[in-house]
Specification:
single chain; 4 strands
Length: 72
């Protein structure tokens, strides 16, 4: 799993940080999403998916990696 964040689209609601604080933070300057881990561990997948779902602006996207890419 790889995360992509669109900081231009982000409105700084902070729902991602509340849902998955080990993966997301907010920039101290503008309050927009700041990734702590753009490729979170599998055990964080449920929290990351929940954070993507609650993001009011849709600024976070999950890019699933194929098994072949993960083994590189």
């Amino acid at each position: 799993m790889e995360l992509r964040m669109d900081r231009e689209r982000c409105i700084g609601a902070g729902m991602c940080v509340l849902t998955a604080p080990e993966v997301f933070d907010q920039d101290t300057e503008d309050g927009r999403v700041a990734p702590l881990d753009a490729t979170p561990a599998p055990e964080r997948a449920a929290a990351v998916r929940a954070a993507v779902q609650v993001c009011p602006s849709g600024a976070i996207t999950i890019v699933e990696q194929s098994p072949r890419e993960e083994n590189r």
